[in-house]
Amino acid sequence: MRYLVAGGAGFIGSNFIRCLLDSDVEILNFDKLTYAGNLLNLADIEKNKNYTFVKGDICDRKTLKKVFNKFKPDVVVNFAAESHVDRSILDADEFIKTNIAGTHNLLKLSLEYGIDKFVQVSTDEVYGSLGKKGFFTEDTPLNPRNPYSASKASADVLVKSYSVTHGLPVVIGRCGNNYGPYQFPEKLIPLTILHCMKEGKIPVYGDGLNIRDWIHVLDHCRALDAIIQKGKTGEVYNIGAKQEMKNIDVVKSIISEVAKKVPEKKISERQICFVEDRKGHDRRYATDPSKIIKTLKWKPKISFKEGLCETVDWYLENPSWVKSVFNKSYMRYYKANYSKRKVIA
Ligand code: NAD
Ligand code: DAU
């Protein structure tokens, strides 16, 4: 089988490629290498005979067409996206282009060339924000509340429309918050690990009581594999590990884990700094994964405790990767997002 993986140089895409290369698939990774795309994420497998990398933009239909023509994929898996909510609040232009128009290019070419399966990697954020009770099911109405999630919901609706209108064999996976190795430090977990190491302030938005539903990236990758193998055309599958946590508790767990592993540094909860909230900050995400568990026989294997311990180890053991992502462009973004936020406590 030949898989065209769009956005495979990012966090989840690179973990997915590494997982799948052990099986009998040929993979072409098509990635623009934005600030979030990093070929170091795949350095260990770049010479694998079943793996090819092509640098390209999913918004560039001409180049994408050449790739479809030459590689002739059986399966298309779309990870390519602008993925960070805070950046979409600063400026949503690239989100609209890549997440919507780019996805449309992939759909159009998948239809033109004929494929066996199109997998859209989506998010639980498309459902909006929950109150204290309840879970997102696949029937929860779409109610995205920030430009990132609105662009992802738009893509989901387009993907679905290609199934209904044109009979394209599509499947959508909607996953909660991923963590694990190779995650870009703009996201809460790597940001907190790295700020612990630098003995700097750890910014927590608002009261820190927002809840996210965490899943280890490898559990997500295994779920996507199950969807490719057994997912029913036209269906949506929620992916989650039922590991809801308040942000402040996530941050405290990380502080305690890093402090344990690096006792020579002054790492403590005193580093926590409550800052002005994210605009439109969704209060709670919680996913009901019963459908994928029952129908595709997938289940998550990695507990948050175990996954966090391994993730902290990975960041501590990979200083050259960390150095490569803490570059000038990241510092510019960091300043734009954090420097004007008022400190609350
Ligand atoms: P990421 O930001 O780490 O990686 C995105 C990748 O897409 C990068 O390699 C980037 O270079 C590439 N890319 C961006 N624009 C492109 C374009 N125009 N053409 C080609 N490549 C392009 O993101 P991630 O966290 O790995 O997320 C991957 C996908 O999973 C996204 O679609 C995201 O919405 C979805 N998702 C993420 C999470 C999460 O917690 N990170 C959870 C659920 C769903
Ligand atoms: O739920 C799935 C989504 O999870 C994915 O679709 C997104 O691509 C992914 O980025 C993630 O979105 P979040 O906005 O939930 O992730 P982030 O790591 O940015 O934030 C997690 C929580 O932590 C959120 O409530 C905001 C808060 N936060 C985040 C940062 C960066 C802070 O309190 N301080 C911070 O500095």
Highest CATH level, the class of the largest domain: Alpha Beta
CATH superfamily label of the largest domain: NAD(P)-binding Rossmann-like Domain
Q: Can you tell me the overall shape?
A: globular
Ligand list = nicotinamide-adenine-dinucleotide, 2'deoxy-thymidine-5'-diphospho-alpha-D-glucose
Q: Give the low-pLDDT segments.
A: none
Order of strands, main sheet, comes to: 3-2-1-4-5-6-10
Tell me the major beta sheet.
7 strands, parallel
Order of helices and strands: EHEEHEHHEHEEHEEHEEHEHHHH
Number of strands: 12
Strand residue content:
15-25%
Tell me the structural class. Answer: alpha/beta
CATH topology of the largest domain: Rossmann fold
Q: Gyration radius, to the nearest Å?
A: 19 Å
Amino-to-carboxy terminus distance? 54 Å
Count helical runs.
Answer: 12
Helix content: 40-55%
CATH architecture descriptor text of the largest domain: 3-Layer(aba) Sandwich
| Number of discrete domains | 2
